[in-house]
Target: Hydrogenase maturation protease
Amino acid sequence: MHPIPSTTLIVGLGNTLCGDDALGPIAADRVQQAVDQNQLTERHAIKVLQRCAPTPDLASELSDARRVIFLDASIDGPDDRVLLRRLQETNAAESLGHQFSLGTLLGLARHLYGHAPEAFAITFRGRTFELGDRCLTPEAEAAVAAMVAETLRVIASETVIADA
Model:
């Protein structure tokens, strides 16, 4: 039996060399700073990671977490606000391939390690994802603070109400 984990895992997804795709890693870095400054780790076990994309090796990290929050830029969604979505597992065996979804990653964690955490994605619609564009657009830069605030709210909440 897998022990009940207590850690909240924060995963910033995106490429810092591709414009607004850097939103996830930048927001994750600022969450880490906020956690360190506010001593949130005294009340909550928090681990922050940054990755370019979800990959199968993250399944092990997920299996050790009670809750995971993915921070990412999206290509769709509202233009004017951060979106919080609850994620559902998908069958890992049916969808392994080059496109590796967050739901597949959760399913893989359960399949391999017997546990998948409660999972959320906090996203904002990016404007540019061009390689070599090393700056966030003004809209994405403004969204970072909202993503951090929403992440800290989810960390502190026992019950989370998501947009979808």
Notes: Residues 26 and 67 are 20 Å apart (CA to CA). The domain at 7-156 is CATH 3.40.50.1450 (Rossmann fold).
